[in-house]
Amino acid sequence: MHPPLPIPTGNPLPLPGPWPWYADPEAHLFPHTGPSSTQNYWLYPTYSAAYEEQTFFDAFSSPDLISWTKHPTVLNITQIPWSTNRAAWAPSVARRPIKKSKSASQAGDKSSSSADTDNPPPEEAPEGEYEYYMYFSTGDGTGIGVARSTTNSPAGPFADALGRPLVNGTVMGAEAIDAQVFVDYPAPNQNSGGSEWDSEEGAGTPRVWLYFGGWGHAVVVEVDAESMTALKGQFVEITPPEYVEGPWVLKRNGVYYFMYSVGGWGDNSYGVSYVTGPSPTGPFTSTPTKILQGNDKIGTSTGHHSVLTIGEEYYIVYHRRYPNDTARDHRVVCIDRMEFDAQGNILPVNITLEGVEARPL
């Protein structure tokens, strides 16, 4: 008997309908979503439609990258007073462990002072208990907001956490769109592909960074890791050559890879390049390398990506268009392998119709 052939995901990914068009996908592996959950891969895309119809975000989850469940309207921007009720774009989801206070009975030492028992130190909640935050842009650059899951689940629903934008309007020439939240650990070899707050022993306390920017400018600012709803420090412009939009940062072996979209999002010049640096704010190398571009026979206008990191394996998740389909909003979500050479360079991505092999969790 021959072993069964691996099952491919196919490209585009078979996301449940009825609407087939999504763009700007952010992919995550959230391993701990509650004792009864088996759907651990998550996608948070833009609903690709006319700006006036982009008033919400859908999410998708899967246990294997093939069978997807749709979670409709995980955030409705028409319920946010400061929103302009249009152009909801490119959400980024991050999580942090829930902190709870020890009760007096848990404190143990009955000789503790009243001040100690009235203000017990926080402790980490049991594994799998997290708060989830969504960072999103609305109004074609009006601002970047932050919403919190009301269920402590990546499925939401999410509700506006501030009553105002976290980033209000243009900063250093950067349109306030295309947020990415990157969780960085101090340990030099702690790899991180995005927002997966990993409580691995010895990893240390992470710092949280918000990258964003359209109109050819990229900006980064630190996020307060305790609240996840406030900024700290100064905005820093980090615009690399040919930058257009769609920043994505990952860390591998102590090197920070700043990836971003180049070209025009409506045509086949759209692609992804990267530069590298020694820290979340650079300085980054001055010569970019292009690693994702379209193929007239397979798919065009490949860009606005994220990277799904699973151990030492990497998957690039991005949108593209069907060949010869020129409709502005006809964009679909795809996944392919992303690999590094021995020197740590990202190799050019081979875009496919097959996608990647199923990966059950």
Automatic annotation (TrEMBL):
Q: Which SUPFAM superfamilies match?
A: Arabinanase/levansucrase/invertase (SSF75005)
Q: Which Pfam families match?
A: Glyco_hydro_43 (PF04616)
Task: List the residue ranges of the region (Disordered).
Answer: 93-127
Molecular function in Gene Ontology: hydrolase activity, hydrolyzing O-glycosyl compounds
* Annotated site (Important for catalytic activity, responsible for pKa modulation of the active site Glu and correct orientation of both the proton donor and substrate): D178
Report any one BP term from Gene Ontology.
carbohydrate metabolic process
Keywords of the record, alphabetical order, are:
Carbohydrate metabolism, Glycosidase, Hydrolase, Signal
* Secretion signal, residue range per the UniProt entry: none
List compositional bias (Low complexity) regions by residue number: 103-115
InterPro entries linked to this entry: Glyco_hydro_43, Glyco_hydro_beta-prop_sf, Glycosyl_Hydrlase_43_Enz
Top-level taxon of origin: Eukaryota
**Family named by the database record:** Belongs to the glycosyl hydrolase 43 family.
PANTHER family in UniProt: ENDO-1,4-BETA-XYLANASE (PTHR43772), PUTATIVE (AFU_ORTHOLOGUE AFUA_2G04480)-RELATED (PTHR43772:SF2)
Protein's recorded name: Arabinanase/levansucrase/invertase
Which species?
Aspergillus uvarum CBS 121591
